[in-house]
């Protein structure tokens, strides 16, 4: 019980003195007065030196450490190594520890400690099922798939569900929101209102889109921060092969929109940054090097290569073993081009998919038994009906309702239970949750990176 709280604030120059003073006071405090809680606020302290200091003190001293990780503490690997040292030395045990600092760091500390200190890094919201395109690799809109029922296609998120999802997310420290879905977000007639609501929450907004329905002037004026533009081609010819219903000139019109966005940036106006998504399959992998050149042409912030996800209708588009050898060659060529043009691309993640994918499209089997899944601390997805999923797959655990917001769910006991199960990959407790979908996990690369950082390794 805390009878009285005294607060010391330490800065760079005084941190050593403050720690020594705290240690002296605590060491000499009579046992019957040990209920006094001392709060030590530490700025710019590295956990490594803190661990050494605290290791020399009795572990059961009941004081409260208020650890403020400074925004300058950018080296997460060093931070996590120091945290592990603290845990190994047992110096955080039996002490109240309150962590504050940049959300990015708190997410890692929280994951290691099994606690939630801040909001998700990304909230993905599915906006609409309808799409204006017919990408051949798409599970639902591909001409190879049976036509989806009209009622399903017309389903989109309602404004009450959207409002209840977004409200309060800024306050809990959410890093960003991504509009996405099984259809094109810009088919939703209220998308402008939804963009404005996100910006009122003061949260970064990214939108996954095929760009055709985007009014680039309007999205810039509304303050959209990033567009993930799914092209899955780098030429008119391949674009039309991947989108068979498109008329000639369709790819050229997209390039005009990209030109307009680039011109805004050149003139110093706000324009959303652009990243290209390329879903790779047999009909487009030959263009991987050209995809890099296209990104360089438009000064894109990066390209994201993703092996297509399969179901029975589109499995024939999955590159077979011979194709995969040829793809590896293209990938090497693309890496050279990317380093020449300074283009960011997820080569290591895509390379992992390429070397692990089997003939059914599975590529992450066995990975999570070894490393666990950390998405519960970093990510959450809300479907257009308000159902809340743990990750990109349909792993629904809860639902946004008029009396239950997404931020309530994020902090709920139930959600936390699944976070812990997934982290430890406890398949017994997580029955029905950790399942075959984990063998084709869209978040595998993030999980691998987080796992390495938590282990104090360079990702
Ligand atoms: S598919 Fe499985 S392993 Fe991947 S993020 Fe979802 S729960 Fe985690």
Summarize the structure.
A hairpin with a 4-residue loop joins β11 (379-382) and β12. The chain has 18 helices and 13 strands.
Give your account of this protein's structure:
It is a single chain. The chain is of the alpha/beta class and 459 residues long. Helices cover 39% and strands 15% of the residues. It has helices at residues 15-28, 47-55, 76-89, 103-113, 150-154, 159-166, 191-200, 216-222, 236-242, 250-266, 288-297, 321-341, 347-356, 367-371, 375-378, 406-410, 413-424, 444-454, and strands at residues 5-10, 37-42, 64-68, 96-100, 122-126, 176-180, 204-209, 226-230, 273-280, 302-307, 379-382, 387-389, 396-399. The chain has a nine-stranded mixed sheet with strand order 10-9-8-7-6-5-11-12-13. Strands 1-2-3-4 form a four-stranded parallel sheet, with helices on one face. Helix 2 links the parallel strand 2 and strand 3 (64-68). The longest helix has 21 residues, at 321-341. It is globular, with a radius of gyration of 25 Å. The chain starts with a strand and ends in a 5-residue tail after the last helix. Iron/sulfur cluster binds at residues 368, 373, 375, 390-391, 393, 395, 422, 434, 437-438, 441, 443.
Spatial strand order of the main sheet:
10-9-8-7-6-5-11-12-13
Number of helices: 18
Roughly how many Å is the radius of gyration? 25 Å
Give the ligands present.
Answer: iron/sulfur cluster
How much helix, percentage-wise, in residues? Answer: 25-40%
Structural class: alpha/beta
- The overall strand count is 13
Distance between the termini: 41 Å
Largest sheet: 9 strands, mixed
Global geometry: globular
Mean pLDDT: 86
Detail the poorly predicted runs. Answer: 1-16, 25-37
β-strand amount: 5-15%
